[in-house]
Every structure is written in structure tokens, then in C-alpha cells.
Amino acid sequence: MKESELYAPVKAFLQALGYEVKAEIKGCDLVAIKQQAPTVIIELKLSFSLELVLQGIDRLALSDDVYLAVGIGDSSVKRRNWRNKQGDYKKLCRRLGLGLMSVHLEKEAGGQVLVLLDPAPYSPRKNKLRQTKLVKEFAARIGDPNVGGVNRKKIVTAYRQDAIKCAQLLSKQVSMPLKDLRAQSKVEKAADILQNNYYGWFERLSRGVYCLTDKGHSDLQSNTELSCK
């Protein structure tokens, strides 16, 4: 598949909407003009990429109606990858004020062009609940136990730090009443942590009395990250 194969379907699509279309005008892949309508600029690429996004941003200096047109691969794997990432692509384009089109060149699609997003000024809406959770987690976390940018490693959250406090206390006792554990650890949600037992560290011996499981002892001994300094 060649990038130039995207041009004919997109041109036909715009012509059907009453636009006059020409290619390669002042560096723009496609320019479409119609009376009493904003000039439309479209950049064509076989895949969504940073290069395509940067081209779109540059074209915003020429028109507010800039679209990125992406060719959809002719294999099932490529189409699946596009579907999986399409939401993120739209989110990025929306934030940048760019439009997004998909151009389907499979034989059964017949050069179908779909407008997934029209360009519009972006006004971000803050998620108050997520903001509150962000600040709450920041305040609750002890120190800075993680390294930014590290993948495939468990994140030490405030919840995990509280569970570690409870586990460390229990590791020094055969068993311990929940009331005493909460008082000594100063973990307000100690009851929830022990009852939910997310990490498999705790075992209920009787009502309100807990001990540390073999897994809890093992994890405390083998993981240096299980410390709250």
C-alpha cells in the first residue's frame, strides 16, 4: 500500500460534499475549498505517527479545519491494532484541535472514508473525583518508594504501605487482636485491609484476631521494597 493511494478516496469523499480539491498545495497533501466554508487541509499517512501529528499542528497555522487521514491496513492484525488504539488517537487529536479520518482500502471496503472526529477548539474538563484521589494518594504515601518510568514492577501505593505496616507488626507476634493492631500501626483502614486480604498475607484465627500467613512471612523476607521508612 502506498500513501498516494489514500488521495483518491479522500478527494472523492470531499467532492461529494461540494468541495474543489487539489493536491500538494504549499506542502499540504490535500486542500479542499468550498464557498462560504472554511478551507480544509488534510494530511495523509498510512499509519498514525508523531510525524503526522506534527504536520497537522503545523497546518493549523493555515486553517482551523485540519484533518489527519490514516490508511487502515489490509490485514486483520493491523485493523485490530487500529481499533484498539483509535480511542487514544481521537483523544490526542481532540486536545490538539485536529480532525481525524480513517481510509479503508480493503477490497470489501471500496475506499471508504470515515470522519472519526471533526476539529474543534479544545476545552479540557477536569475530573474532580480523579483530582481528589490523586492528591489523597500523594498525601497518604510515605516517602517516595517508587522510581518513575519503571515498567513491569509493582507500584508501592499508600494501600500497600498500610498493609506492610500491619504485616510487619504481625510478623513479630503469633497473633494479634485487630484493635491492638490498628492502634499500634495507626492504620485507620486496618480492618478492611485484613478482611479483604488482597495480598494473601493475613489469616483470621477468630473474631477480631489475625496472624500472618506463610506467604506474608515469605514476602516480608524476600522483598526489600516491603518497608516503610
Give a description of the structure.
The chain starts with 6 loop residues before the first helix and ends in a 7-residue tail after the last helix. It contains eight helices and nine strands. Helix 5 (about 160-170) crosses helix 6 (about 180-185). About 40% of the residues lie in helices and about 20% in strands. A hairpin with a 2-residue loop joins strand 1 and strand 2. The chain folds into two domains: about 5-115, Trna Endonuclease, Chain: A, domain 1, CATH 3.40.1350; about 130-220, Arc Repressor Mutant, subunit A (Orthogonal Bundle), CATH 1.10.10.10. With about 230 residues, the protein is of the alpha+beta class. Strands 1-2-3-4-5-6 form a six-stranded mixed sheet, with helices on both faces. Strands 7-9-8 form a three-stranded antiparallel sheet.
Describe the secondary-structure layout:
Elements: H1 7-15, E1 20-25, E2 28-33, E3 40-45, H2 50-59, E4 65-72, H3 76-96, E5 99-104, E6 112-117, H4 128-140, H5 158-170, E7 176-177, H6 178-185, H7 190-196, E8 202-206, E9 209-212, H8 214-222
Parallel strand pairs: 3-4, 4-5
Antiparallel strand pairs: 1-2, 2-3, 5-6, 7-9, 8-9
Helix pairs in contact: 5-6
